[in-house]
Amino acid sequence: MTTDDTTPSVDQQGAASPAPAPVPANETPKSGNAEAAKYRNQLRDVTTERDALAASLTAARKTMVEGIAGKSLEKPESLWASDTKLEDLLDEDGNVDSEKVTAAATKAADELGLRKAPTGPIVRRAGNEPSVGAGLTGGGFAGAFAPR
Fold first, then answer.
1. How far is CA 11 from the centre of its chain?
2. 25-61 pLDDT, tens per residue?
3. Which domain of life is it from (predicted)?
4. For residue 133, how many other CB atoms are within 10 A of its CB?
5. If DSSP codes are grouped into helix, strand and coil, which group holds residue 104?
6. Hey, is 99 helix, strand or coil?
């Protein structure tokens, strides 16, 4: 008598056990351990990617905070020296709150004696005018119109 894969087999004690499900030709049956290992590897990969994205988001948020603080502080990176935490500068949705950043920058400037960012136009060497008659030959008004 011959049996095929679809008929139940009888074990040594006479109880019928179901036949294994047919496996497609291009796929090999996997043990439970191999499948669990595959999922553990996928989990590690996803966790690593998540951590990299979280670090990137934190760096982007710090850059945004320093950009806003740069309007109030000469050196915006000095904001972190006043024990300011990034989480304290975010709104309830996780976005950078410019009002909180400005308040933290003002507080840091007052507590640490930091210089505030200059406001208004910056004119280099303002007030440092050369002497009026320097470079003129013959001196004075008449010398300016004299032939050379």
1. 62
2. 455 556 788 999 999 999 999 999 999 999 999 999 9
3. Bacteria
4. 11
5. helix
6. helix
